[in-house]
Amino acid sequence: MADTTDTTAGGVAGDDTRPISGKAGGKAGGKAAGGKRAGKNTATTAARSGSTGPGGPPKGRTRPDKSTGGPAKDAPAKTGGGAGSARTAGEPEAATATPGAPVDGVSRRRLLGTAGAAGAAALVVGGVAGATGAEAVRGKPTPLADVGSGVAPFYGTNQSGIVQPAQAHGHLIAFDLTGGTDRRGAVALMRRWSAAAAELMAGRPPQGDDSGVALDAGPSSLTVTFGFGRTFFDRVGLTDRRPDALEPLPAFTADALDGRRSNGDLWVQIGADDALVAFHALRLLQKEAAGSARVRWQMTGFNRTPGATAQPMTGRNLMGQIDGTNNPKPSSADFARKIFVPDGQQGADSWMAGGSYAVVRRIRMLLDSWDNLSLERQERVIGRRKSDGAPLSGGTETTRVDLDKMGADGALAIPGDAHIRVAAPANNRGAAMLRRAFSYHDGFLDDGAPDAGLLFIAWQADPLKGFVPVQRKLDRGDGLSRFLRHEASALFAVPGGCEEGGYVGQRLLEG
Length: 511
Description:
Blueprint: H1 23-33, H2 42-49, E1 102-103, E2 106-107, H3 108-116, H4 122-137, E3 169-177, H5 183-201, E4 223-228, H6 230-235, E5 266-272, H7 275-288, E6 293-302, H8 335-339, E7 356-365, H9 367-371, H10 375-382, H11 419-423, E8 434-435, E9 438-444, E10 450-460, H12 467-477, E11 484-494, H13 506-509
Antiparallel strand pairs: 1-2, 3-5, 3-6, 4-5, 7-10, 7-11, 8-10, 9-10
Helix pairs in contact: 1-2, 3-4, 5-7
């Protein structure tokens, strides 16, 4: 939740303007899943394929015009393809973009006329017309959408699920190794998990999977990301290889942490643009862990569905704020240095080259209190207009924040405790992190307040230089902190990716 120029502990990852079309990404991802791009940086793969690059997606997320291959101009929703459609998955679309245009010899006007002309026999005639329309388009079915065809590569220098924007559906799950699982058992588990994730992300059911949960869907931009908690190293006898960056996070005054929903030996992040695809991955990985690791905690989140807005827009959080305007971009000269552990590391954490550290926080929003504020007061707490995300110092959403600008009343245009001022890198010695998050709603508390907020994930090369200094600053003087409760926390070392035939964490476990 926060402004991203202003890197903060609580924001949705940046400008979620992913291309709706998955065709380009699908081709590139398919090659990656086949190993042809093994060893290449995930961000590079995404850039070439037209999918999202590190820290922010490409500009101009548009739905391609099916007839020309180019971007459509304010394309209307196709009949049967929007919200509220009664048509089921796989049923052919019987309408064309132009009213009255023929559909394989049968015009829409003729079909509708046939359906309505019988009067008392409307049900019978309607059934005949529906059958005729289905027959007319059966040879050339039009996809309801191309969201399902998006593919992210499993193999590469970095794991997927870091630089890609957060998908519409997400699961975060932590495991603890069982008492009998040693280093050899951990190797076997990571091999099974990596093999299953590679198949799932390529849109194929893993060997032996007959669940059928996601049988009809494409990969839907599925990403599966693995990480190791501090206690993992003790359990597998690798304490001497535990990175210093995995030291426990300091306590903050806004913390109200539940230990049962914090930390863990292993962590898995799952994201997909289809809920069944995301659940399918979650269920299979849980089954693969049987006998080796047990679930410690699990959280489910969501974001805006791709294509839900008429034009590309930055996402909003549950407070209604546009959130993620200026997440770090790959075009920044120091992006990789701040987000990924560099090659050539020496010492205990040399195996982390190409990896990143994930701070995971469950942040409940006090929405009843927030909603009681006036719009003007909400905007002053954040430092941005709610309608379009523009800073109160003026301009548009992407205008650089002017922290020195004075208002007509002689006061600072952006108040001294405004969230974007306190979180600004300029006020935090340049501290930066890549924020990638999911909203959540887990029902209502005993007092009727919504149990809702943000599953916040911050990525950085070193949490002591990214998350920690920013959160300390927010803890002391952020006006937004009065409306937030940090209820769970964890820190994980997320190693680099792997080559085809290998598995995530191999350099640690076999190095």
